[in-house]
Fold:
Amino acid sequence: MTSLEQTCRAELVLANHILARADVLDAFGHVSMRHPERDGHFFMAMSRAPELVEAGDILTYDADATALDADGRAQYIERFIHSEIYRARPDVLAICHHHSPAVMPFSVASVPLVPVYQHGAMIGRHVPLWDSRDDFGDTNMLVTNAMQGASLAQALGPHWMVLMRHHGATVVGTGLRELVFRSVVACKNAEFQYRGMALGPVAGLTEGEIEMAAKVPPAAIDRAWDLWAREG
Amino acid sequence: MTSLEQTCRAELVLANHILARADVLDAFGHVSMRHPERDGHFFMAMSRAPELVEAGDILTYDADATALDADGRAQYIERFIHSEIYRARPDVLAICHHHSPAVMPFSVASVPLVPVYQHGAMIGRHVPLWDSRDDFGDTNMLVTNAMQGASLAQALGPHWMVLMRHHGATVVGTGLRELVFRSVVACKNAEFQYRGMALGPVAGLTEGEIEMAAKVPPAAIDRAWDLWAREG
Amino acid sequence: MTSLEQTCRAELVLANHILARADVLDAFGHVSMRHPERDGHFFMAMSRAPELVEAGDILTYDADATALDADGRAQYIERFIHSEIYRARPDVLAICHHHSPAVMPFSVASVPLVPVYQHGAMIGRHVPLWDSRDDFGDTNMLVTNAMQGASLAQALGPHWMVLMRHHGATVVGTGLRELVFRSVVACKNAEFQYRGMALGPVAGLTEGEIEMAAKVPPAAIDRAWDLWAREG
Amino acid sequence: MTSLEQTCRAELVLANHILARADVLDAFGHVSMRHPERDGHFFMAMSRAPELVEAGDILTYDADATALDADGRAQYIERFIHSEIYRARPDVLAICHHHSPAVMPFSVASVPLVPVYQHGAMIGRHVPLWDSRDDFGDTNMLVTNAMQGASLAQALGPHWMVLMRHHGATVVGTGLRELVFRSVVACKNAEFQYRGMALGPVAGLTEGEIEMAAKVPPAAIDRAWDLWAREG
Structure:
């Protein structure tokens, strides 16, 4: 294993822990990152609760979501979310799929998320809604094969987050730390929007504000990462 | 005591702790499991807050909710919930009665729970509501005898969860881990439904989706159990 | 100091800690108990955040809320709540005044609390609302003298809890553990009612149910106390 | 460094930790205090998550928000909030800018905050709303220069708190402990108001009540500080 790979795996373990402690992931949901050296490949933990993931649990997946080093260990059923989005979106370097309590109400009521504060701009001007029934009718609500993953990737399109009807959400980023940050602030944004809507109409940021505010500098992301990573 | 009994008791202690930490149980509520070898018998803790239950606190009850080894220790008043449901439902191997903050609003407003996400499908297509007044008029709101337990069991019918008006809920399972999982995800489902309904109309999963999504594989349940049990 | 006094003080310290950890008290609010041997006297901590109260902080007050052993230590300004309710209600042996987040919304919106579940019956059929403006016009919103305390006691009347407009609530009990229990379950009841009302109309328990359910046996109260007191 | 300076810095570190643990600040937001000896100067941490701030992280800023001792360390982009409010308001000795979950819904829905309980009176009779679009059109939603800071200071006027549309809030005080106290109770007030409004119309305190209740004695503020500072 190269030293670059080792660094990636260590960051991915931290990302698992951070997202679990931030109530983005619980016993379920997963986070992945592109392999830095092998085209189309990506890293993701074996099937384990994110908070418990250790360096040795990180598996290497190829572009078809086949694990190269599973050695019989269980895998996340929904790994096709990751493979198909990496295939469709070369700019995406990290992905998180989750069912956070902040976002679930919007998934359950099919109400659009809109950016309502500066960091919330990172969810982008439009958060599409994927309804698995459109292409597949009744399912067990999971993304269990490449066709379903591709359908989700198509719904995501060029955006940064996609709501999944009665299921959860998937968030993408151009780097692991950016993805973790976007995933956490998207939950904050959802919570602020939910409570704001209980008080009155919520207009959201203007298009110009979203465009400018979405450019959160890496230093700000690192400031948050340093806080969130302090417990390892 | 057989080694099988010992294993059951250890699992039941863990179930008590997990359900307390997950805010399903607090100082009140209880969880039981069928005796693996004695027909109609079941295990349940003496009257003690679930979070404090230890192996030595587990009592053996017969089919009439008479403790065989209480040695004068206090017993849960509502033990008839368990005996009567085990009598009516041979398929049920574990039962949890609770007053969780997530579910109580539905009990208080008599609003039906519906599955709103994949794991929530485990509550089933229909969650009946038991109103103690129908058979017993005004009571102290507790299930204190076999007749009341049987009435509740009848309301539960073939379902997996029954709301109890102004009281709480009772959840059943075909195994202890499945029951614990169903109890926890039912609370998540209630929370998502509650918040979803504040955003707009909530349709719930389709019947086909419920049927398929309710079949959560044991590996997924074990993944959650491993996380929840990490503190003993 | 008699051994009975010492026991009382130790219980009162525990009551302070329990109520703080249960989010009934925060940096403010207070809990007192009648002196077991001296007529009209009562015990209450010096002015200190309840979570920090130690045995040496417990002061003895006479019937006019004059501390007999303050030695210059600061006292709660609102001690007249306690002296005047003890004067008006010989059956009351313990009192808690608080501004808990669960109850404050009802105080702020002047919406009546009603019992919505079995333990909630302990708040009684009627929770009166005291509006300090009725007798005193604009004030600093605190109960700072005997006249205001007496006005509050009159509003409480024969009941177990009184809401205070834009201020908080005061709860009374026939014993310290019963008071602590009632204070905690009143907050749970308020939370369940608040969330129930968001789902639909909330009828509350019937009068007959309230009368029967309010008789929570001491063993149940002790079960909760044992859980809540486990951290000292 | 004088001993007075050292005391100030130690208090400011505590203020950072207290505000973070009270959910006023998270990875973002900041708190400052005037330099006790140098006109127009103030202390504020380098760009770091408040919960992690240590004594060595406190920088000295001049009246134009230029750090005198940064030694290349990163600075909060929004430091102009502080410099311009100190310039406009000689009575202000401490400032906190935050995006707390309690206050954000009001910022997001542009709904006025009103005092709804005794400590809440400290937010004052009027909490103005600053909309960055009025003077600057679309921005990245941050206060990144002196002109924007001056605009915010003008919106604040003679008040104690200013809501910032789709951004957060800024709170000021005549001393650091008073500021911390006001910041925390403003969040409590926002939460009580939010939940009260879900129950029914919320009138808020009268003008006379606000005037009297706003005068919280230093002893009460110290009582809370002693609790909040117990973890350092």
Residues 3-231 of chain B form a domain with the L-fuculose-1-phosphate Aldolase fold (CATH 3.40.225.10). The radius of gyration of chain B is 17 Å.
